[in-house]
Amino acid sequence: MQQMVKRVVIVGGGTAGWMAAAAFGKLLAGGDYSIEVVESEEIGTVGVGEATIPPIMDFNRTMQIDEADFMRATQASIKLGIEFVDWTRLGHTYIHPFGTHGVQMQGIFFHHFWLRYRALGGTLSPDAFNISSIAARAGRYSPPLPPGASPLPPHAYAYHFDAGLYAKYLRKMAEARGVKRHEGRIVEVTQRGEDGFIESVKLTDGREIAGDFFVDCSGFRGLLIEQTLHAGYDDWSQWLPCDRAVAVPCDRLPTTTPYTRSTAREAGWQWRIALQHRIGNGYVYCSQFMSDDEAASLLLTRLDGAARASPRPLRFVTGIRKEPWKKNCVSLGLASGFLEPLESTSIHFIQSAIARLMFLFPGNTFDPATIAKYNAMTYAEYEETRDFLVLHYNAVEREDTPFWRHCRAIRIPETLRAKWEMYKESANIVAVPGDLFRESSWFAVYTGQGCIPRSWHPFANIPSTTELNRRMELMSSDVQKVVQGFPMHDDYLRAHCAAPPIPEKPM
Ligand SMILES: Cc1cc2nc3c(=O)[nH]c(=O)nc-3n(C[C@H](O)[C@H](O)[C@H](O)COP(=O)(O)OP(=O)(O)OC[C@H]3O[C@@H](n4cnc5c(N)ncnc54)[C@H](O)[C@@H]3O)c2cc1C
């Protein structure tokens, strides 16, 4: 019989470490476990990671987080999707919104009907059929109506928040649930002689923290999973070439935009995330085509307000740990892999890894088949998202800089090629259970980036032209009506979750 693992040691106190600690503290409550977090203020955290996606609601619900309290504590705003500016071509913009477009008809997805409607001369864009898109453009927000309250499916949303405040919020929650924190820098990791399992970590002052199960949340360095256990890394930069970022917060504008903006730039793209107290900005770029100094100075000239700190440089290699879980160590967050933040997926990966880990929580035998299953599931999740990101870079008309010519010439992964070929031919998008990006997301990005299929599902030919136009106009006017009833985003924030002002001095 396998026994419970009793001592869980989490190495790292960034978003990953504290999300894991808060979740374990809650979900292992009442059991005979100890949960300890080791973090080093001297090393600090990556300090970025401000945009999320709707599944974060599931994490917050499981944690019994009160939304208004959480939003106040983290200076959060609402995110309804991402606006992509200048991606397809200069001067072009589209939104990848949360939630679905339109409603299913004849048992098939809305986009097939839209494609026929468009081919017949219909002029409404996909945005007109998505509540989050229209609300984002109007700067409005209201929580989703309960299912059935409108003929349209409820819209979806997520948050923008201050990553540092989020980690603090989770830390408070974890410590209230009995998680113990150790401050200090780990300088040594001891392994068991016979099988190399990790036994303990040692800090500079000689303290030794022993455990049965180690969760490596140490960031890009992968202190346990890579530096100690040599799990290996699959480098995916041949598909996603950006490898650097520079981040800087700036003063806010009077209006808080309820969506993330991603603007394609000469050697990558720039993010803009409006929070209650400031705007987060960053330039993600490829070092082959741009120097660090150039990226930082271009970013500083493209801010909406005065910079509030010096630009912070970051380096990364897009890819995934070959074995995110090895022996008695599982890696979470940046220690397990990284896909650049174009679709804000990293915090989600932490959350879904925690859920997977709970489902496959180890006994003291550390069953290799369970570990292999966990690793295969993690790999599949990263691979699906990688393909979605590659689509953004490859399906462009831009040829104005060497970077964009490079992106157009990328030999895309076979998994993406198969999806894209099917879409081009028949407009079919097949999302399998567990896929993060579903039909509406692929449709939004395919269409936004100018990929229009040759055909559509034959069932979309069933309604007459008049009937099809009638349904499309009705749906779009329902979307407009719903959004007109929403308050302005800033009024909503003020009324429900206004955060205390933070006195931050401009540089
Ligand atoms: C440019 C960029 C933009 C991003 N934007 C987004 C976004 O919009 N949305 C999103 O979901 N994600 C985003 N991410 C990812 C997100 O920032 C991370 O997934 C998230 O912050 C988790 O980081 P982490 O906790 O794994 O690592 P870190 O924040 O790096 O934390 C590592 C922890 O380990 C500790 N540590 C390391 N070594 C030692 C040691 N020797 N001894 C003791 N402690 C140690 C550190 O002190 C720290 O506490 C972005 C990432 C980058 C690089």
Summarize the model shown.
The chain has 507 residues and is of the alpha+beta class. The protein has helices at residues 15-27, 56-62, 67-73, 110-119, 131-138, 163-176, 292-301, 346-359, 368-394, 402-408, 414-426, 439-448, 465-484, 489-497; strands at 7-11, 34-39, 77-79, 81-85, 93-97, 158-160, 180-183, 186-191, 198-203, 208-210, 213-216, 233-235, 244-250, 260-265, 268-274, 279-285, 312-315, 319-321, 325-326, 329-331, 337-338. It is built from 14 helices and 21 strands.
How would you classify the quaternary structure?
single chain
- What does the radius of gyration come to? 23 Å
Structural class: alpha+beta
Count of DSSP helices?
A: 14
| Heteromolecules bound | flavin-adenine dinucleotide
Which geometry do the CA atoms define?
globular
- The helical percent reads 25-40%
Q: Report the portion of residues in β strands.
A: 15-25%
Please state how the strands of the largest beta sheet are arranged side by side.
Answer: 5-4-14-15-16-13-17
